Amino acid sequence: MRITEIRTELLRMPLPRPMQSGSSSGKKGGPVSHINLPVVFITTEDGTRGIGYAWSLLGGATATRCVLKDDFAPLLLDEDALDHERLWRKLYKRLQSVGRHGLVTQAQAAVDLALWDIKGKIAGLPVYKLLGGCRESAPVYGSDGGWLYMSVSEMLVAFEGYLKQGMMGVKMKIGHEDPKVDIKRVSEVRKALGKDIWIAVDANQKWDFPTAMRVGRELEQLGVAWFEEPLLCEDIPGHAKLAAALDIPIAMGETLGSRFEFDAYLRANAVDILQPDIVRVGGITEMVKVVTMADVAQLPVAPHHMMESTIHVACGVMGSGPIEYMPWVAGAFAEPAHIKDGHMIPPQKPGLGLEIPEEIIHRFRVE
Ligand code: MG
């Protein structure tokens, strides 16, 4: 199925609720208000069109579009769109010296998503069924209501909205300059929600090892489900020491850029819960491999963000594990994510089931 046309776009869209974490803030340290969405449309000789996308908050979006347009498009034209594995390797090898992690990998993920979309449309099957059809839905936790700038009462309003929908629990950010502020906020949320509600926390790589140790011990007392990104993601030995010393599970992986980077963490026993981001890790093709590695290591996978496409991997090849409810790019797609009784149900249309209306492209396009 020959690729005949490749179109790229870049959208800049407002976030449904501004975000602020221990590693991401806007100008002058305030919340971030927009998300960038580099998009690729790949068309085949029979007129089938696949859609893929990357995402970024703080930069790199125009460069990602350039990689798609200038580097990848010429390599993909006239290729067989059904050869996702061969094409993944071709792109990886051709840009290895400038890629392997970061925006080149993210552009590669956009291509990979589009190729899986095409494959599903040609097969007449949703991608999660093509991948393996492990389950028909995945439990969801609410993750867009616990930002650093929000007061405890603001967070509780957001969390109660999630819990009313039957979601399994909530995640909140930690990572203030003074970690005592975080412990106080988590304590107050725990007290308000009760001891039985699932709560996870995310430090977004804010701390050094001694601080993370101190905070981790306090989080254990508060019955927190996982301690996400306590340290800089390059610090594999630090994560290994922390994972060995603390009882609370260490979750990380959203900033790792391939199965090779996950492998380094697994070999070092430095992570308890793997959190691949479908875009940052290199797309569906690469994420499926990470899920297999987690299966061999007998560790859970809790995918990071981009729930609209991740749900296909989460239901296709994973028998368990939650979806992170983060509707950051929901406004781009023609149909909203289907959440029922606290579970997300994958789109049932052939392919990814995601279409971006032209009207949305016109409204949010960055030239
Ligand atoms: Mg995180």
- CATH homology group of the largest domain: Enolase-like C-terminal domain
Tell me, what is the CATH class of the largest domain? Alpha Beta
Number of helices: 12
Fold-level CATH name of the largest domain: TIM Barrel
Number of distinct beta strands: 12
Low-pLDDT stretches are: none
Explain what you see.
The chain folds into 2 domains: 3-125 and 357-364, Enolase-like, domain 1 (2-Layer Sandwich); 129-345, TIM Barrel. The chain contains 12 helices and 12 strands. It is globular. The two termini are 31 Å apart. The strands form 2 sheets. Strands 4, 5, 6, 7, 8, 9, 10, 11 and 12 form a 9-stranded mixed β-sheet that branches. Strands 1-2-3 form a 3-stranded antiparallel β-sheet. With 367 residues, the protein is α/β, with parallel strands linked by helices. Helix content is 39%, strand content 18%. The chain has helices at residues 61-76, 84-94, 103-123, 127-131, 152-164, 179-193, 209-221, 236-245, 259-267, 284-297, 307-316, 358-364; strands spanning 3-19, 32-44, 49-53, 138-142, 169-173, 198-202, 227-228, 250-252, 273-274, 323-325, 338-340, 343-345. The structure holds magnesium ion.
